[in-house]
TrEMBL record, chain A:
Short name of any one Pfam family annotated for the protein: MitMem_reg
A single cellular component GO annotation: eukaryotic translation initiation factor 3 complex, eIF3m
Domain EIF3F/CSN6-like C-terminal: 115-225
GO molecular function: translation initiation factor activity; translation initiation factor binding
InterPro entries in the record: EIF3F/CSN6-like_C (IPR024969)
Highest rank taxon of the organism: Eukaryota
Taxonomic lineage: Eukaryota, Metazoa, Ecdysozoa, Nematoda, Chromadorea
Listed name of the protein: Rpn11/EIF3F C-terminal domain-containing protein
Automatic annotation (TrEMBL), chain B:
Family assignment from sequence similarity: Belongs to the eIF-3 subunit H family.
Protein name per its UniProtKB record: Eukaryotic translation initiation factor 3 subunit H
Subunit structure: Component of the eukaryotic translation initiation factor 3 (eIF-3) complex.
Residues in MPN domain copies: 12-165
Protein task: Component of the eukaryotic translation initiation factor 3 (eIF-3) complex, which is involved in protein synthesis of a specialized repertoire of mRNAs and, together with other initiation factors, stimulates binding of mRNA and methionyl-tRNAi to the 40S ribosome. The eIF-3 complex specifically targets and initiates translation of a subset of mRNAs involved in cell proliferation.
Any one GO CC term of the record: eukaryotic 48S preinitiation complex
Keyword annotations of the record: Cytoplasm, Initiation factor, Protein biosynthesis
Compartments where found: Cytoplasm
Domain of life from the UniProt record: Eukaryota
Taxonomic lineage of the native organism: Eukaryota, Metazoa, Ecdysozoa, Nematoda, Chromadorea
Coiled coil feature spans: none
InterPro entries: eIF3h (IPR027524), eIF3h_C (IPR045810), JAMM/MPN+_dom (IPR000555), JAMM_MPN+_peptidase_M67A (IPR050242), MPN (IPR037518)
One Gene Ontology term from the biological process aspect of the record: formation of cytoplasmic translation initiation complex
Major place of residence: cytoplasm
């Protein structure tokens, strides 16, 4: 059974605490397809590590995350990531529990708002042949989303037209209800007068800011010519 | 001192792991409100390798560096500062050694920093760049802007000092004459390199998996409410421009003083020479010219580091102005889009309605 380098872990822990003080250790990961006996010992070691640094009296539960990098299970379409929490088990009404079970947990992926954006950019690389992606420049990003929106609106339109052509209402009215919701919120939250006011005021503010920004840049470039020449 | 070799890479290729790590580090600090501790922003070190044939710098991993703990005002502040700097360097070397034992690329290729609105140009950054570029000729500095990313567009830029700027820095001489001779402006001081993001195959699998889960808010960049950050940006522009004006006033005064000094010096020298000729004609020894130089003092530009302060301020202001211009452009476009949704809106833009 391979050993864990304790001093290495301690040093990394210290480093992490100093560089990102807002983060804490919550578990450990192992790249294996199925749990083995050594997992139990490693889990023990890591829970001891976590309880050493945490300030509370009782041990916080830590997670074991496994990812099967060899993709050994066949015909699986999803990424083999699993999470476990350790629990004691045994025959009820006996004093000591003689077994330990790793209970599987549901795995969900979440992200900070900034991370979600970065993820979107990185995901574009999945389609490219050499798996690369460039960063967006200027207004291209907005262009693409506008195109997407136009697509969605067109699909909605064809759907609505089809429903209107049929003589009876469709059996599943959830779509219709959602459309009603959207139209209602648009009407109540953003009535035409409010929108008009918003547009006119903001437009002038933005024009001013844009003018000032361009003025700053022109002044800077002029100044450069004067300094050099 | 040996001449520094010129950097040869044209492109910076970043692994998506590095992008996510940087974003995660900065965002988690941003979220807990700790972006600036003791005056330093979140920063870290980049590792990777340099590929000469394809002329690109591959960044394959990175790690965060701890910032100095805010120390209490006391007697030993100087000693604490020095020991902290040494500790930091030691920690970086330790980390690199650990990377090597874990089979991760351990060659230091640069550093990353997080700054609001991308205005990162400070004296310390330039000094760090000089350090990195003198040891690794292709070192770069990655600047990440968390504010812009939150509004929907990943903002990551790679900078390095141009060769001329590097020479000047190494000689630590930024007086106006030397700068003029080198023909350096604030635009040519720092070069920006294009960035390409690359994924590994395993990453692709995970990204495909993520694409299957429903996204929470697909249209973050379509939101209109960016006013507060714009205000902050403008305030910083005003502050920078004030500084810039002060520096420019200094520079103008310096050039005027220098001109006066030059004419005065020249006239003195000429008088001396005439006298000397007269004396030689009479057969006496000529008076040496050196004591003139000693008696009159040349004027000096009143800032430390000479022109570099001005350049850095210019770069900062330019970054702020870029941010403001880009965001306003996008917001105007968004406004027009939302206008298209409402019918019966009059196209009269001349009057603004009071709120």
């Amino acid at each position: 059974m391979p050993e864990i380098n304790d001093s290495f872990n301690q040093e990394m822990l210290q480093m992490m605490k100093r560089s990102t003080p807002s983060e804490q250790v919550v578990g450990w990961f192992f790249t294996v397809s199925d749990l083995t006996e050594s997992c139990e010992m490693y889990h023990d070691y890591y829970s001891r590590l976590v309880s050493d640094i945490s300030m509370r009296k009782e041990q916080p539960p830590i997670i074991l995350l496994t990812m099967d990098v060899s993709f050994s299970v066949e015909n699986q379409a999803r990424l083999p990531v699993r999470a476990y929490v350790r629990a004691e088990a045994g025959i009820p009404n006996k004093q000591q529990n003689h077994a330990v079970i790793f209970q599987p947990l549901k795995v969900e992926l979440d992200a900070f708002p900034g991370e979600a954006v970065a993820l979107g950019v990185v995901q574009k690389g999945t389609d490219a042949k050499d798996r690369t992606a460039l960063l967006d420049v200027g207004i291209e990003h907005l262009e693409k989303s506008t195109e997407e929106m136009i697509n969605w609106l067109e699909r909605l339109q064809t759907y609505v037209n089809e429903v209107l052509k049929q003589k009876e209402m469709p059996s599943d009215s959830s779509m219709g209800r959602r459309l009603m919701d959207i139209v209602n919120t648009a009407n109540t939250q953003l009535p035409p007068e409010k929108l008009e006011r918003l547009v006119k005021n903001s437009l002038r503010d933005y024009m001013m800011i844009s003018y000032l920004a361009n003025l700053t840049k022109t002044q800077l470039s002029l100044q450069e010519r004067m300094l050099i020449g | 001192m040996a001449a520094l070799a010129e950097a040869k890479v044209d492109v910076v290729q970043i692994d998506s792991l590095v992008v996510m790590k940087i974003v995660k580090h900065v965002d988690s600090e941003f979220y807990s409100g700790m972006t600036e501790v003791a005056g330093e922003t979140c920063s870290g070190i980049l590792t990777g390798l340099i590929s000469m044939e394809e002329k690109k710098l591959e960044v394959t991993n990175c790690f965060a560096t701890p910032r100095s703990e805010s120390f209490i005002e006391g007697e030993e502040t100087n000693q604490i500062a020095v020991s902290q700097v040494e500790n930091k360097q030691e920690e970086v070397m330790e980390m690199l050694r650990r990377f090597r034992s874990m089979n991760i690329d351990y060659e230091l290729v640069g550093f990353y920093q997080a700054h609001f609105f991308g205005a990162c140009f400070t004296h310390e950054m330039v000094e760090s760049l000089v350090d990195y570029q003198s040891s690794v000729q292709d070192g770069v500095c990655l600047i990440y802007d968390p504010v812009k990313t939150r509004q929907g567009k990943l903002s990551l830029h790679a900078y390095r000092l141009s060769k001329k700027a590097l020479d000047l820095c190494v000689n630590t001489d930024w007086s106006p004459e030397v700068v003029k001779q080198a023909g350096l402006t604030y635009e040519t001081m720092l070069e920006e390199l294009p960035i390409v993001i690359k994924n590994s195959h395993l990453m692709n699998v995970m990204l495909a998996e993520l694409a299957l889960t429903p996204k929470s808010k697909p249209g973050i960049h379509l939101e209109l409410g960016t006013r507060r950050s714009l205000e902050k940006c403008l305030r910083s522009i005003m502050f920078d421009i004030d500084e810039l004006n002060k520096a420019l006033a200094n520079y103008n005064k310096y050039t005027q003083d220098k001109q006066k000094f030059d004419t005065m010096y020249n006239s003195l020298i000429q008088k001396r020479q005439l006298e000397n000729e007269a004396r030689v004609a009479r057969g006496e020894a000529p008076i040496p010219l050196e004591d003139i130089k000693k008696s009159v003092k040349a004027p000096q530009l009143q800032t430390k580091n000479g022109m570099m302060e001005i350049f850095l301020d210019c770069c900062d202001t330019s970054a702020y102005a870029d941010y403001a211009a880009e965001v306003t452009g996008e917001n105007v476009a968004k406004l027009f889009l939302s206008e298209a949704f409402a019918d019966n809106s009059s196209k009269d833009r001349s009057a603004s309605i009071p709120r």
